[in-house]
Structures are given as structure tokens and as C-alpha cells.
Amino acid sequence: MNTTTPKLVIVNSRGLDDERATVAFTIANAGIASGQEVTMFLVSSGVDLVRKGAVDFVRMNPLDPPLKELMEDFMSRGGQIWACPPCAKVRGYDPDSLIDGVEITGSPSLHAKILEGANTLCF
């Protein structure tokens, strides 16, 4: 009998100008609700989502909750958010630039999750 918690990693490259960023967090929250351990790995312009203040007033689709609410819900229920180091660096972001709880970590962490059996989705 497999007693390990199923894992899901969502790789998101969508930023503040793309509704798919909201979709990624909606799916991430549904993953947590279904009992999965979910990690969001942000790359490229996806890293902009976790800059302090960036999503405070973002609502890309009027039928979806505000992005800030989706992200806070995700993190409050145990979701992890990782930011790609070179993607953060090229934007001038350091750990103090990012919302609390976000970890700047590279692809070895992502691959460790995959080797643990994580399913992956990409946006």
C-alpha cells in the first residue's frame, strides 16, 4: 500500500499580463484540495507574480478570485512557491523583494520533486 502523499509541481512562466497565471493558481489550489502536495515553480515572467505588491490589485478574469487571494490561499494551505534564481536575478529581485514564504531555488529542487514521483503541469 502506497502511503506517500501524491505530489504535483506546476511550472508557471506566465506573469501579470497573462490570465493563465490565475489559472495556474486555481489548479494549484484544487490540487491541494484533492490531497496533493503542490509546489509552484515560477520561471521567466512568472517570477514577477511574487514581487511584493505586484498582485495586490490584479484580477485578470472577473469570474475568478483576485490573484492575490488565490496565492494567499495556496500558501496558507501548505503550497510551496519557488522562484527560479536566474529569472529573479535578471529582474533585480532578491529574497527581500519577494512575498514571505517564497524560496529562490533552482531546477535541482524541481527535479528532486519529479524523482519523488511528482506529476508536472506547465503554464
Name its key features.
123 residues; alpha/beta; five-stranded parallel β-sheet; 5 strands; globular
Walk me through what this model shows:
- The chain is an alpha/beta fold and 123 residues long.
- The protein has four helices and five strands.
- It has helices spanning 20-33, 67-76, 85-90, 107-115, and strands at residues 7-12, 37-42, 80-83, 102-104, 119-122.
- Strand 3 (80-83), helix 3 and strand 4 (102-104) form a beta-alpha-beta unit.
- The longest helix is centred in the N-terminal third of the chain and has 14 residues, at 20-33.
Short description:
With about 120 residues, the protein is an alpha/beta fold.
Helices, strands, pairings?
Blueprint: E1 7-12, H1 20-33, E2 37-42, H2 67-76, E3 80-83, H3 85-90, E4 102-104, H4 107-115, E5 119-122
Parallel strand pairs: 1-2, 1-5, 2-3, 3-4
Helix pairs in contact: 1-2
Discrete helix count: 4
Q: Assign an overall shape.
A: globular
Q: What percent strand?
A: 15-25%
Major beta sheet, strand line-up: 4-3-2-1-5
Tell me the total number of β-strands: 5
Mean pLDDT: 96
Computed structural class:
alpha/beta
* Uncertain stretches: none
The biggest beta sheet is recorded as:
5 strands, parallel
Radius of gyration: 14 Å
Spatial gap, N to C terminus: 33 Å
Give the helix level as a range of percent. 25-40%
